[in-house]
Amino acid sequence: MGIRFYKPVTPGRRGASVSDFAEITDRKKRPEKSLTVRKKMTGGRNNQGKITARHRGGGHKRLYRIIDFKRTKDDVVGTVTHIEYDPNRTCRIALVEYADGEKRYILAPEGLKAGAKVQSGETVEPVLGNCMPLSAIPPGTDIHNIEMQPGRGGQMVRSAGTRAVLNAREGRWAQVTLPSGEVRRLPSKCRATIGVVGNHEHSAIVYGKAGRRRWLGWRPHVRGTCMNPVAHPMGGGEGRNSGGRHPCSPTGKLSKGGRTRTKRKASNKAIIRRRRSRRYGEVKV
Fold it and tell me: How far apart are CA 137 and CA 159, in angstroms?
């Protein structure tokens, strides 16, 4: 697992890099057909055809790999047959074949290799790739793919290179530190997978040219200060202006320092310590 740098034969290649895909077991292998469905591109539009996520569209055609986030096949030993690339997420995925012949995709933690045995359940050992309730995981263990509600499937800590740490347990609650620094209280029955999500060097990849972003489905991003006043609150002005107001979205919502979390959200009471601000390092309240 590492990064391969291109030779600077063109301006787009200069400084560009790509993953070496060393952990992929067989690059010519097609994804498991029974575990794939067609992925429909939305172009950032909702069911009314209105753009709700800007700068999206185009991109390469993809097949969606159905990932087993719930890991409910308890006490059945599975063997990792392949580590594969997934175009729909930043981490790698592992194809697991269970003793009864069923195959499922799981998120591949760092260090998991073909031939390894994985298992899920309340009585399994807390080793790499195994999935178990928080009540059975030793405190201080690195975990990922964490459920927020029992039986709902993993929703947190699924990106490449991320990890959470189980701090403590008290009664029917467990305390987990998330990658953002937020400390959250979760039911002890929620499941999590042991280990750190693989492909941790994904964030260090330099795309090098705009075309590589278009292949991923990302369209050009135009700054608000370059627009006309009719198109953006920061647009217009004689000459080159800095905007004349705090950075904001086209609808006037503040871009920096503003609170984005709903004040009356039900899960607010589950947050013990807020995440730290990336800009100043202070705790958000």
Answer: 21
CB 148 within 8 A of CB 189: no
The b-or-e profile of 243-258 (16+ CB within 10 A means b, else e) is beeebbeeeeeeeeee
Inter-residue contact 208 to 16 (CB < 8 Å): yes
Q: For the whole model, what pTM was predicted?
A: 0.89
Mean pLDDT of successive 10-residue stretches along the chain, which has 285 residues: 90 93 92 94 94 94 96 94 95 95 96 94 93 95 95 95 94 94 95 95 94 95 92 90 86 82 88 76 51
- Superfamily for the 3-202 domain: Nucleic acid-binding proteins (2.40.50.140)
User: Do 158 and 89 contact (CB within 8 A), yes or no?
Assistant: yes
Q: Which of 166, 269, 206, 242 lies closest to 12, judged by CA?
A: 206
Contact indicator for 257, 266 with CB cutoff of 8 Å: no
